Amino acid sequence: MNRTKQFSVIIVFFLLIISSCSRNFNNRVENLVFLEEAEASSGEISAQRLAEIKASVRGFEDELDRKIEAGKETGNFYRQLGTEFMHQEMFGLALDSFQEALQIYPSSFTLYYHAGVCAARMSLAQVNQAEREDYLLQAEIYYRRAIQLNGRYSEVKYALAVLYFYEMERAWDAEPLLLELLENNPKDIDSLFLMGAVQASIGNRGEAVSYYEAIAEVSNDQDVIDQAMKNRNAIMGGME
Fold first, then answer.
1. Cβ 101 vs Cβ 74: under 8 Å
2. Which of 135, 139, 185, 223 could link 123 by a cystine bridge, Cβ 3.0 to 4.6 Å?
3. Does a structural domain hold residue 181?
């Protein structure tokens, strides 16, 4: 088979693969295959035929480009819709929208984070314990996936630590996340408060006291300092 003939066969095979995209694609490929079979016996392909194949390939490329752009627009629509639902505190609808967006953008760590937030909030609205646990598990999975995609995303690590400590009663899982956050930012007030609560809950009262004292050292907000000292004194009272 000469090189021109090989090129023709490869092009037609390519068209056959992507023809399932639409009925129009099927019709166009069938026409190409019919013409190819009619010329196959000659062992050669005319310049006109080669031009027709190249023109058809360009047509497919244009169609695929349109589909890609339509996909992007759809993904952005669901992303923006989910964000607006979140602003309105419609967390169930927001979660549905973010899940749709993830079908188009499965590597977006921000979408996983937002979906996790919505799932966590939805867990609070459940009366049935099994349904509540299902939403909590969803939130954990979404947060974990966001961290896998972007390990520097501090917001999601803090959100997951909150989920573990306050909602899932898994303080031991919250601790390493908070250690990472405080290693990167020792003056993170929110993480210091949460770490103090975590240490107190697992019986490390001395550690808890040190975290609350650290807040008083790094904060310039008197209300924050007062709350930290109140927590510290409550723990110290229990240690006496």
1. no
2. 135
3. yes
Instruction: Give the per-residue pLDDT at 70.
Output: 77
CA atoms within 13 A on the CB side of 140: 18
The distance of Cα 163 from the centroid of its chain, to the nearest Å, equals: 17
User: The domain spanning residue 225 has which CATH number?
Assistant: 1.25.40.10
In terms of phi and psi (left: phi > 0; alpha: psi -120 to 50; beta: otherwise), the region of 222 is alpha
Is 210 within the bounds of a domain? yes
Q: Which residue has the higher pLDDT, 65 or 158?
A: 158
* Count of C-beta atoms within a 10 Å radius of residue 117: 22
Residue 219 is assigned to a structural domain of this protein: yes
Helical pair 154-162 and 129-149, crossing angle rounded to 10 deg: 160
Other Cβ atoms less than 10 A from the Cβ of 37: the count is: 10
Q: What is the pLDDT of residues 13-72, one digit of tens each?
A: 444 444 444 455 455 545 554 555 545 445 556 677 677 666 666 766 666 767 777 778
For residues 160 and 177, give the distance between their C-alpha atoms in angstroms, rounded to a whole number. 8
Could you give the number of structural domains in the chain? 1
Q: Which structural domain range is residue 223 located in?
A: 170-240
